[in-house]
Each structure stands twice: as C-alpha cells, then as structure tokens.
C-alpha cells in the first residue's frame, strides 16, 4: 500500500515542486517527500494459518475491541451481542482503521476483509486480516514487545469478560453457541472424595505445561466416563468446563465424513478447551474386535474396525472415518497439533469399546459414574430441597442411608422424584423413601451381592468362551444368564 501511494503521489509532488521551488531545493525536497511517504512498514496478521487458527489474530481482535470504543481515531465500529447476553462487543468495521499508542510510539491497525471464491465448495467466502502500520525506525524497538503485550492483555480480557462457548461441528466447521450450563463440582451428585481427586487432577493438568514439556508429551489429558445412563456424565463435563473456564467442542462423529475432515476440525480447536465425544460406542460403528469375529466386509464408514484400521498406520480409504483416524487424534502425531486440551469420551457400556481406545496413553483416567450413594444423595437433597441431615431427622437419615445403597437408582432418577415435590420437603423425602424401598425390593439383595454376582458371571463367561470344545455347556450357560437377567429386570 505504501509503495502504491508513493508511486501515485511522487509525480504530482515533482510537478508541484518544479512550480514553486527553485532548482537547488527540488532535489532535497523530493528526497524528503519520498522518505516521508515510505517511512512505514506493514505487517499482515491473517485469521488462519493454513488449517490452524491464528491465535495472534484472535488476540488482536479482542484487544482492539477493548480500545475501539474509546478511540477518537475510529469513526465507524461494528456492534455485536450474543444471544441471551447483556454485553455489547465493539469491533472494527470492514476496512476501517484505529490508532493506538504504545510506550509513546504511534501505530495504526486496519481491519482488512476481502472476498474470495472457493473452487472446492463453489461458494464465496471472506479472508480476514489485521494490518499493523509502524514507522520503520520504531519497528525493532516495539514490535515484539507490543505484540507480547497484546497477547497478555487479550488473555486477561478473555478470562475476565468472556462467556464460555460450546462448539458443535456441522458443514465441515465449528458453530459456536454460548455455554450457560450452571453445573459445578459443588452441585455434582458424586462421592466427595472422588470429586476432590478429579479437581486436583484438573488443577495439576492446567498448571502442568513445564511438566509435560519436560516429559516430552503433548499437553493433553484423556478422561473416559462410563456407567449407566443418568449417572451424571454430561454434568461432569459441564463441571469440568466451569471449573477450568475452558470452552467445549462437542465432536459429533456422525457429521464427519472422512479422516482428513476430522484432522481439519481438530486443527481449528483452540487451546484451553475440552473436546467431547459422547456415547462413543453409539456415534459410529466401532465394534470390539476382541470379541467373536464376524463375516468380513469392505471397510467403510460403518465398518472402521477392519484389521488395518486398528494398526495405527495409513488408511487405505481416506474417504471414510476410521478407528485409526480416531486413534491418531487421541495420541498419534496429530494429537500434538494443539496444547492444553482435555479429551473426554463417554459411554454407557465400556465393554462395547475396542481395547485400542482404552489402552494406556489414550485415556489417562477411567472414571466409573456409579449409582447414587448416600453422600451423593445428600448433595441432591441440598440442591433441590436445601436440606441437611439435621433437617431430616435421625430416623429418615437412617432409612435413607440403608436403602439408597440397595436401590441402585441413578442421580437422574432421584432428581426426578425430588423436583416433583420441591415445594413440599416432607412429601418429597417421604415419596423418595417409598421409591427407594420399592426399587430395593425389586432388585432383590444388597448392592454388594449384585456386584459379586456380576463378577462371578463375568468369570463364568470368560471360562465358557475360552472352552470351545464345550459348546453345549457354553450355550446352556448363556441361556441361564439371560434368564437371571430377565428375572432381575422383572
């Protein structure tokens, strides 16, 4: 831009100088004019760096929005307000400028927006960038210091003022929605000791950049949340996001058509984020290959568990999302293209997952979301009824403590009972006791007995499957197992 302006104004300047100045001053004046017009250097900061999001662009956008509303040099601003938000955000309009001063040095920012045509999608899109103008003799003095200060201030503004965002993928990109889930670890119905352990683990991760770098590992952590439906897996994710003040990227695998599209999505995920894949056993068909083999079929979107897909090598057909593509995302080479990320898988049945997803280094922690225990029940009573133990009475506390372990009800089931009678505490507790007792009688036996029977059944199933010569005994055992399960359900 400087060169173009100089080329346009230099002839005009020469003509004017020839008309008004004597010959002995023309040469000096021309040198001064060229030096003045060409004394600036320009730096372009693009929105994207290839597949990556340019964090410097985001930082500049946040920083300029904080100074644009008070700057006298900016005559036109864009105003935005997110849905359900009371905060108005200021920004530079397209191709407008704003001035700034840093350590006594004047600089100028311009928001540049240009239209471009995408041949792949046959659509028009926009290329956005910021252009920084600095005098040449000030460049070495302030450039790096100024940009570092912008990054620091942007992080502070982002942390103090922003609303958390949950992103969902569709159309090959991420769509943001304000995240206003009120769930915290204080309201999460879970064993308090386990909650404290998880919170400490999250704190250690968030402050562990030097530790991960020293170990030579990508700065990420994986959590597998598993257990029956209604035990609080989604609430746990919300509590983690609110505790760390991280954004959430809800990755819907059924919307991803190929491994290459998956990689592009991952490259656009910012740091300080939680990447969630809920119901991983149901999102796409990735069967447990350690179980009985099925008839071979050609590899496709619905059969990513083919042998070469689990090898971690290059996929033969990149037009479908495969297990190896997902594994490369969790701990392969592509997992290190980003930092300070938490990966969360959820499933209702851990037995349906392929062991390749569960091995060490992929999911760092396996957290079983259990049925409601008495410590978790106390949290629910506090959340819904504002009741403590002393408010309930010794008899009610004793009954609740005895029956809740046998009832095997999820926090969601108990919450449904409490919220119906939220205005009448006595009725709520009385009805809850009736429901718990009825569920305990229906289950038959204590919780410990049920767990012990489950362990014995798993051992019997393993022995039966490892004895192929005893086919009739194996089949008889399966029939008896189904009968026992049906009896318990009835």
UniProtKB/TrEMBL annotation:
SMART domains hit by this protein: AAA (SM00382)
Residue ranges constituting the AAA+ ATPase domain according to the UniProt record: 219-373
Domain of life: Eukaryota
Reaction(s) this enzyme catalyzes, per UniProt: ATP + H2O = ADP + phosphate + H(+)
GO BP of this protein: response to stress
The keyword Disulfide bond belongs to this UniProt entry's keyword annotation: no
Listed SUPFAM superfamilies: P-loop containing nucleoside triphosphate hydrolases (SSF52540)
Region (Disordered): 287-317, 443-490
Hydrolase keyword on record: yes
Keywords: ATP-binding, Hydrolase, Magnesium, Nucleotide-binding
Entry's Gene Ontology molecular function annotations: ATP binding; ATP hydrolysis activity
Cofactor or coenzyme needed: Mg(2+)
Protein name: AAA+ ATPase domain-containing protein
Organism expressing this protein natively: Corymbia citriodora subsp. variegata
